[in-house]
Design a protein that fits this description.
The chain is an all-alpha fold and 184 residues long. The chain is built from three helices and no strands. The chain starts with a helix and ends with a helix.
């Protein structure tokens, strides 16, 4: 049997030609087997590994493209939403301004209407006061006139006798006659 250290020293040891057999040197055969396996793996695995890496690369690039498209779409939708928001805000501001001006107009119209109504009420009050004053003045005049008539009748009745009465009537008839002659 060979020494293990011999196989390390003589790595190039090959069995004599013409014989076929198993190499029992584990370290030498493992190195050969490993190099063969690695060579086969590299030769055939290179394509498979390249295909796997290319597929992975394509999926990553596709995902990046999709995310870029989604991002661009999201940016576009965001810009549209901002434009709509700005339009709605402007419309809301315009609506608020119109409503405020409408409310202000309504308030001014109401104030104007109330002032007109107050003015009319003041005029009605003044007319009512003038009417009541005139009525009171007429009542006072009527009473004064009645009092004066009653006083005059009382004086006449107490002072008037038949002879004075006849003279007064004839004087009045005379005055009436002279007035008739003037008008004719």
């Amino acid at each position: 049997m060979k020494n293990v250290t011999d196989s390390f020293l003589f790595l190039g040891y090959w069995p004599p030609a013409g014989s076929f057999g198993f190499n029992t040197d584990i370290l030498a055969t493992n190195l050969i087997n490993l190099s063969v396996v690695l060579g086969v793996l590299i030769f055939f695995g290179k394509r498979v590994l390249n295909d796997l890496l290319d597929n992975r690369k394509q999926r990553i690039l596709k995902t990046i493209r999709n995310s870029d498209e989604l991002r661009e779409g999201a940016i576009e939708r965001l810009e549209k939403a901002r434009a709509r928001l700005q339009k709605v805000e402007m419309e809301a501001d315009r609506y608020r301004a119109n409503e405020y001006s409408g409310i202000e107009r309504s308030r001014l119209n109401l104030i104007h209407s109330i002032s007109k109504t107050l003015e009319q009420l003041e005029n009605y009050k003044n007319e009512s006061i003038r009417f009541e004053q005139q009525r009171a003045i007429n009542q006072v005049r009527q009473r004064v006139f009645q009092q004066a008539l009653l006083g005059a009748l009382g004086t006449l009745n107490s002072c008037l006798n038949d002879e004075l009465h006849l003279r007064t009537i004839s004087a009045n008839i005379g005055m009436f006659g002279s007035m008739k002659e003037i008008t004719d």
